[in-house]
Amino acid sequence: MPSEKEDDVMKNVTFAEGKKFGDWKIGKTIDEGGFGKVYIATSISDPKKVAALKAESNEIEGGSAIKLEAMILNKLNANGPVPHIPVVHLCAKRKLYCYMVMTLLGRNLRKLKSTNLVVNNGFSRGTWSRIGIQCLYALKYVHDNGFIHRDVKPQNFLLGNETDSERARIVHILDFGLARPFAVFHARENKWIARRARGTAEFRGTLRYTSPNVHLRKEQGRVDDVWSLLYVIIELNGGKALPWQTDSQRERVEQMKLNLPAKVVMSNMPACMDKVMPHLASLDYYQRPDYHMIFKCFWQVMENEKITPSSKYDWEKDEPDKSVPPASWENPAGPFFQSDPLGINAPPTPAEAALTEKSGKKHGKK
C-alpha cells in the first residue's frame, strides 16, 4: 500500500492527456513506477512522430535521476544516433518534477520473458544468444564512452517499438540513474584516463544481478557490468533459475555468489560459455574485459542452434522484414567487439589520477 507521501509524489507526475511539453503533447500512460510515469508523446509539428515522455518527481530521495540519464544519453549520441542507445529529444527540470522526451521503445526483457510461449519464463538458446550479443554491444558502447552502468538487469534492456522497423529488433539499454564515469578523456593529453578506484564503495545495483565485487564493496568497473549481464543471460536460459533466484536475503545471496563454483552457477549453460565466468573472475577494476571472446561464445551458441541473426525471435510471429539492413552486431567477425578506443588496462599514474578526479566528479554520481 503506497504511503501518503508516495501518493503526493505521484501527483507531481500525473498529467492530463493533451498537456504540452515544448513541441510534444502527451497521451496515455504506458508505464508507471514508484515515483514516476512514462507517457506516449506526439510531436505537435509532425503528428506522425511519436516518442516517450518520462517524468519523475523531484521529491524522491536523492531527487530525480532524469538529468543525469539525459546527460549520459546525449553524450552517447553526441555524433548522431547510434545502435542500442535511445535518443533524447527534450529534457527539462520543473519545480516539482523532471522530464525528458526520448525514443519510444517496446517491451523490456523481463516482460518478454514472462510472456514467452516458446519457453516457459525464459528464452530459447537461439534467442538469448542474440540478445546477449546485443546487450554486450550496448554495454561496450557505454564503456567506450567512459561510463559504467551499475544496474544491469532485464528491465533495463528494451526492444525497439514494433512500429519502428529499424529499431524493432534492436535491444536498447536504458536507466542510467546509477551510472558513474570510470574514465575521462583529456584533450590536452589526447587520451582516456581511468579514475582511480576508491578503497571501498557502497552497494549499487540490483541484488540478484550484482557481481561478487559489489558484495565485497569494491569499486565497480567494466567487468562488473559484464558479470551482471552474464547473470541476466543465465536467468534467461530457458527459465533455468540462478541459484539465488528466489532469495531476497543479501547475506545468503552474497555467500552463494562468493562461494559457489562457476560450474554450479553455469550448470545449465552450453559448454561453449564455460570460459566466460573464469575470465571475469580474473579481472580487476581497471582491466578491459575480452568482449570479443564473450561475443564469440554467444555466436557459437547461435551456430550450435543453427540460428542466424535474421531468424525469428521467440516472441515474433512473422518473419523479419528483409528490407531492413543488417545491424552492426550481426557481423560474425565482431570488429566492434575487438576495438579498444579507450586503451585502458591499468591504473592511472599519480599525475593522471589528479587530472581525472576533478573532472570525473562533474559527470556523475559517486
Automatic annotation (TrEMBL):
A GO MF label: protein serine/threonine kinase activity
E.C. number: 2.7.11.1
Any single GO BP term: signal transduction
Bias (Basic and acidic residues): 313-322
Region described as Disordered: spans on this chain: 311-366
Alphabetic keyword roster: ATP-binding, Kinase, Nucleotide-binding, Serine/threonine-protein kinase, Transferase
Domain Protein kinase intervals: 24-307
Entry keyword Kinase: yes
Gene Ontology annotations for the cellular component aspect, listed alphabetically: cytoplasm; microtubule cytoskeleton; nucleus
Signal peptide segment: none
PANTHER family on file: CASEIN KINASE-RELATED
Family of the protein in this entry: Belongs to the protein kinase superfamily. CK1 Ser/Thr protein kinase family.
Name listed for the protein in its UniProt record: non-specific serine/threonine protein kinase
